[in-house]
Amino acid sequence: MKYYTYDQYDPEGGFVVTRSEHQILQEHWEVWYTAMRRLHGDLNVNPNLHQQCIADWVARHMAWEVEVDPEPTNLSYEGDPY
């Protein structure tokens, strides 16, 4: 299974979020699939659609693939990383 990480910032500091492909699909599949059906009409569900959903999520979050131990899924740090 692949894991992806992205930076999440808030006024009190930032943190890094890591999600597995499974978590991405659990959290975003319904919204993504509904939007695709609205844009393109009915689609047949196949593995390529799942990969496209993950690729769109990665692009939207400017995420990158990482090799991680599945726990924890949220890693925190203090201060500005730049």
Question: In words, what does this structure look like?
Answer:
By secondary structure, this protein is of the alpha+beta class. The protein has one domain (3-75). It contains two helices and four strands; from the N terminus they run ββααββ. The protein has a four-stranded antiparallel beta sheet with strand order 3-1-2-4. Helix 1 packs across helix 2 (47-61). It is globular, with a radius of gyration of 15 Å. 10% of the residues are buried.
Give keywords.
alpha+beta, globular, 2 helices, 43% helix, four-stranded antiparallel beta sheet, 82 residues
**Distance between the ends:** 30 Å
Number of strands: 4
Q: Major sheet: size, sense and barrel closure?
A: 4 strands, antiparallel
Low-confidence runs (pLDDT<50, min 5 residues)?
76-82
Helix content: 40-55%
Tally of contiguous helical segments: 2
> Could you spell the SSE succession in H and E letters?
EEHHEE
Find the structural class using helix and strand composition: alpha+beta
The percentage of residues in β strands lies in 25-35%
Overall shape: it is globular
Alpha carbon gyration radius: 15 Å
Q: Taking all residues together, what is the mean pLDDT?
A: 80
Instruction: List the domain count as a whole number.
Output: 1
Largest beta sheet: strand ordering: 3-1-2-4
SSE blueprint and pairings:
Layout: E1 3-10, E2 13-20, H1 21-40, H2 47-61, E3 64-66, E4 74-76
Antiparallel strand pairs: 1-2, 1-3, 2-4
Helix pairs in contact: 1-2
